[in-house]
Amino acid sequence: RKEVEQDPGPFNVPEGATVAFNCTYSNSASQSFFWYRQDCRKEPKLLMSVYSSGNEDGRFTAQLNRASQYISLLIRDSKLSDSATYLCVVSKVGSSNTGKLIFGQGTTLQVKP
Amino acid sequence: ETGVTQSPTHLIKTRGQQVTLRCSSQSGHNTVSWYQQALGQGPQFIFQYYREEENGRGNFPPRFSGLQFPNYSSELNVNALELDDSALYLCASSFKAQGNTIYFGEGSWLTVV
Predict the structure, then answer these.
(1) Helices then strands, each counted (H, E), chain B
(2) How confident is the model at residue A92 (pLDDT cuts 50, 70, 90)?
C-alpha cells in the first residue's frame, strides 16, 4: 500500500465548477500536510499547507481529518488556469525531517471552457 | 524564481552508463534533497544532505549516491543506469531550522535508452 494515496483522475470540469480532491495517508506519525501544484513538465510548487482546523486561500479550501487520516482540497469557481496536477504531500515533523516529503501520485485536473 | 538551479535540463544516456546531475541551492540554504519522479507518478524521496553529510535516504539502491559541497551545492550520481531510471530528477533546498519550507529546482529530465 502506498503511504499517500490519491485518485489520479483525470477530473474534467467546466469553468466555474467546484471540484474536490481527496487523499489518504497511512502513517499516523505524519505531522505536516500540504497540497502542491505541478504544471506539465514543471517542478511542483507549494499551493497551501493544510491544518487541522481547515484553511482557506481564496478559491481554495483544504481540510485535514487526523482521525481518518484524510486530506481534502476544494477548488471553487474553477478557472482554465487551474488545470494542473495536484499533489497531496505529507511529512513527519521535526527539523531532522526537513525536506523529506512523501508525495501522492497526483490528481490531474482539466478545466474546460 | 526559486533560486535553485539544476543542470543539465535534459540528457539521454545508454543503459549501463553513469550519470551526474548537479544542483545549486538557494542562497543560505544548508539542506538539499533529491527526488525522482517517473512519468505519471509523484516525486519519490531519494536522499537528503545536510552540511555535507547524508541525512536520510529513501528506498533507492546504493547505485544512487550523492555529494554535498561546502557551498551547499549538490550532486546526484547514478551508476549502471537502467531503463526504469528514466525520470525527472528534482532537487529541493531548504534551511534546516525553517521547518518544511522547501524550494524545488526545475529538474533534470533523464532518458535511458
Answers:
(1) 0, 11
(2) confident
